[in-house]
Amino acid sequence: MNRTSPSIEKLAELVGFHRSYVNSFGIEQTPKQEALEALLNAMGYDLSNEEVLVEQITILEEKKWRNILPATHIIKNTNPNYYVPISLAHSDNIKSIKFIINTEQNDVIETSVDLTNLKLIETTKLHDKIFSQYQLPLPELQEGYHQVSVTIGNLYSHCHLVITPATCFSAEEAHSKKVWGYTAQLYSIRSDENFGMGDFGDLSNIIINTAKQGASTVGLNPLHPLYQNNPEHISPYSPTSRCFLNVLYIDVRATHNFLSCQKASDTFNSADYQSKLALTRAEDLVNYAAVASLKYELLEILFDDFMSTGGFENKDEHSQSFTRFIEEQGEDLYTLATFEALYEHFRNIDASIYDWKLWPEEYQSPNTEQIKIFQKSHDKRIQYFMYLQWLAHEQLTKAAILTKTHNMPLGLYLDLAVGCDGSGVDVWSNQEVYVSGASVGAPPDAMNTLGQNWGLTPMNPVTLKEQGYLPLIKALRCNMKYAGALRIDHILGLLRQYWVAPGMGAHEGIYITFPLDDILNIIALESRRSRCVVIGEDLGTVPEGFSDIIAKSGLLSYKVLYFERWWETGLFKRPELYPSQSIATVSTHDVPTLVGWWTSRDLTWRRELNLYPNDQLKEQEQKDRIKDRHFLISALKDVGTLSNDDVSDETLEITNSDLNIAVQKYIAVSPSHIQLIPLEDGLELIEQVNIPGTIGEHPNWRQKLPIDLNEIWKTSSIVNIQKLMNKVRPK
To answer: pTM of whole model > 0.85?
Structure first.
């Protein structure tokens, strides 16, 4: 680390910051002093003088000895010894230890043990005291989340105890055969039924039609909530929360009282409303503001109608369902709805306020007296936001059930974003665990040569463990309840995260270590409970052996054709080298479609948007793409998905359809248990969904599919893919 004091270096090391890293180009990168100090400050550490630094270092170094129990302790159920480490000072003259276990099953186990019977782990001397750490034996417990507490004299210590399975629920357990499915950017669906962007009604259509084709799953972009009062905040990977749902996906006409509510019918059928709706549907890009205006006008009417008939106090089926939903979601739902009401309230006062940190100070925490007053005075509005979450939950639940009734072994394949936007409810409601000011990103690599700053607020790994990983558990659980498979975006962030300091460039980030083993064990527990397959998106600057580590925990690796190559030569890996414990695809939302890659459309965008750090790399990528096309054709011929008669090695002239089928078959014959086909590739589109590193320069997250949903299944390219998949990967 450059010109940093030894004490700051030591503090950074204890916190988990890396001294350096080797980037994807093989060059060692050393963090700047300014970046390191800014991130330590953001985490709450005081770097003002040496004495304070030494005190903070001492606290971190001695924590495991001075705390009787660890904050969290995780045990795999395959471990023959159930114990939790306990640290005791010799001067306390302890002869026996009484402790209490409160199990997740609501059992209370009180027991005691003689100190002489405990197995010694290690001993150390701190100043004038000797401490010893022992194994405190535990009875055999069921998988789940338990609590252990110890009281010794006037000292009390508490530990989150988690018993986990060895591995995640596997793809083979979900279905013994290799499977395939489509992925869709749900907002991009064009239909005469929606309001100008895809919705949960369209999702049901997709499920029914893909099931008929023999598909086993439907993959979707993240469905996390964004900002209801700021519909132009559109990236699904920058949510306000990773729990709950984006209510813009509600199919308004499928709500239970749409047909019975006269005011809603009159509004919907009015000439003015229908004119606006027709214009919004006809646009080639999703007009989120227009869609939101149309939907929320009706949803407000439907909510008032629902409440006027008794709301959740009524005894009919829908009212009871709403009541159950509120009870099941508890405080988290109420907090989300409170935040939405506050966000709306302050945006109505000043439309430029997009961040809770700009609210008056007494509203910048969910637990102030002023918040309680606001909740009472805005009770109906808070109920409205809970009502919208209920509608979204009901409709997505029905879609998930629909996959089962149509015999789709994996069902919905959902996507968990790597983090949350710092202006959102998750950060507002749990400020202790989030490092405000820092941002998660990725270092420069071949795909993003300037690096990436995703604008997502990271979690403090130390605080996350102290909270028993509850924020992560909630995020997993909230998404897995609808999913048969869950993709975790940027899974590497569970081992190490790349943090960008305030005011620094994306290429100047620093890695910090996360407790990977603990997190993988928790993922396994939630996966088993939900019978949900888990996929780790392990692309980018990944350390050697990382994919093997996640595979041992039962996660599937993520294989994208463009990156499955021998980088020394540029040759594509043969499909039989893809691991069976993986998901394989040609492209993703962040890379070009197959046609876009073949025609270098992505490189044209990079040139136009000035995304190259220098002219040399710009020219090199152009030359490399020419070679890459030859390499791909050679690979396809090598495994027999193309022949010499199909394409000349010199001209490389080939139709999009022939190339598409050859490439899909190349992946289909691989051992990868799951194959995904983005609808953009299925329809042979040229434009990619998102160009990382851009916002308004490219229509990210706005492009609609060019044809109506009902016409997709009749398109020749989709029909050809269906025939191929049912031949090579029959259900």
So the answer is: yes
